[in-house]
Design a protein that fits this description.
Layout lengths: L2 E2 L5 E3 L7 E12 L2 E12 L6 H6 L6 E5 L2 E5 L4 H17 L4 E5 L3 E3 L2 E3 L3 E5 H6 L4 E2 L3 E5 L7 H4 L2
Parallel strand pairs: 8-11
Antiparallel strand pairs: 1-2, 2-6, 3-4, 5-6, 5-9, 7-10, 8-9, 10-12
């Protein structure tokens, strides 16, 4: 099963899917000013539904992994302009934030439906400094999702 997710990536491994999910990786190359897309698929065996523990057990592969309702969402790494915008926003918000607030880039936020990774997170400093892997949604004050021209439809769902 493979579908476009509501949170910026492709969805894999939902409750009705088979035990083997197909992960998609999109590679963008510029050719004469035009964008070309190539998809590389990797098979990953997994029993449904996905859990936060299973997500953290995945090897680091440069992709962004999120969970929503037991479904693994996998997105390609952000583009350079996307990362530059995120870094600049984190720097500006961080400079303006009071000492009891931290501004982070691409950190996991545990929500009732799973684990999401917004581009920018504004959270209580005490929670940030006490966290091991992710933040609880109750400690998050604001999130930012940067909308990229190439993923506008996915980013806004």
């Amino acid at each position: 099963m493979c579908s476009t997710s509501a949170y910026g990536g492709s969805a894999y491994g939902g409750p009705a899917s088979a035990a083997r999910a197909t992960l998609r990786r999109t590679v963008r190359r510029s050719s004469r000013g035009r964008e070309a897309v190539r998809t590389v698929r990797t098979q990953v065996a997994h029993a449904d539904p996905w859990t936060t523990e299973a997500l953290y057990a995945l090897p680091e592969d440069g992709m962004r992994h999120e969970l929503l309702d037991g479904t693994l969402l996998v997105s390609p790494p952000p583009s350079v302009p996307h990362q530059l915008a995120a870094r600049r926003l984190v720097a500006a918000l961080g400079a303006a934030a009071p000492p009891d607030i931290e501004v982070l880039e691409a950190v996991g936020v545990a929500v009732p439906a799973g684990l999401l990774v917004p581009d920018v997170v504004v959270a209580r400093a005490a929670a940030v400094h006490g966290a091991q892997r992710n933040l609880a949604a109750t400690d998050v004050l604001a999130v930012v999702e940067i909308v990229s021209p190439s993923s506008r439809t996915q980013d806004r769902r």
